[in-house]
Amino acid sequence: IQGEGVGPYVLSLSSSLADDECHLIVKNVLGIDTGLMGSDNFLNFKVDTTSPSLVSLSPENAGKFNQSNLSIEFSFDELMNESDTGNGVKNVSLFQLAGAGATGVEVLEVTGSGAGPYALVLSGGFSSGEVSLVMGPFEDLAGLEVGPISLSFSVDLDLPLVTSFSPADGTFVSDVNSE
Predict the structure, then answer these.
(1) Rounded-to-10 torsion of CA 133, 134, 135, 137
(2) Which distant-in-sequence residues (6+ apart) come within 8 Å of 107 by Cβ?
(3) What CA–CA distance (Å, rounded) separates 91 from 19?
C-alpha cells in the first residue's frame, strides 16, 4: 500500500485475481483526530477480462421468411452495458438496417435488460427482399466489446401463383387415378 496522511492510497497486488469472481478488500481507517476511532471500509468488485459473446440471435442468419412483422431478438453470455449512448446495447444508432426488404424500416427502441434477451422495436414491417442488419459493437459492464454482429435474411411476401393445372380445366378423364 502506498500513500500518506489522508491519501489517496494505492493498493498493489502481488498476483492476479481470478476472472469472474467477486473480491472484497477491507481496510481499517483510524480517525485522524483521536487515533483510536475506526471504521471499516469495504470495496467489493468482480474481475472481468473476457469479452462478451452473443449466445442467441433470432431470426436465424440466412433464413427465408414469409411475414413482414419479424421480431429480432438477441442475448449475450453476460450482463451488458444497457446505456442508450456510446457502446450501450440500447443505443439505436448502433443498429444499421439495409436492403430492399428493409426500406423505410428503422430501429426505434431496444427493450430488454441484463444479458438479454433484447428485442428491437421497429418503425414498421419488412417488405419483400433481402434484409441485412449490422449491430454493435456493444460493451459489457467492464467495457469489453463484442461485435459488430451481422445478420442477413430474406423476406418473400408474394403469394404463390398456380401456373398450370393437370388435368386441364373442363377436361373429361376416364381414370381418376391418372396424372
Answers:
(1) 170
(2) 92, 95, 97, 120, 121, 122, 123
(3) 28
Which distant-in-sequence residues (6+ apart) come within 8 Å of 65 by Cβ?
A: 59, 153, 154, 155, 156
> From first to last of its 179 residues, what are the pLDDT tens digits of the chain?
677 776 676 766 666 766 666 655 655 555 555 554 444 556 666 778 899 999 999 998 888 888 888 899 999 999 999 999 999 999 999 999 999 999 999 999 999 999 999 999 999 999 999 999 999 999 999 999 999 999 999 999 888 888 887 777 778 877 766 55
Q: Pairing relation of β-strands 149-155 and 129-135?
A: antiparallel
- Residue 22, helix vs strand vs coil: strand
Which residue, chain included where needed, has cell 393437370?
166
Neighbouring C-beta atoms of residue 46, cutoff 10 Å: 13
> Which pTM was predicted?
0.71
- Tally DSSP H helices, then E strands, for the chain: 0, 12
- Among 132, 134, 106, residue whose Cα is nearest residue 121: 106
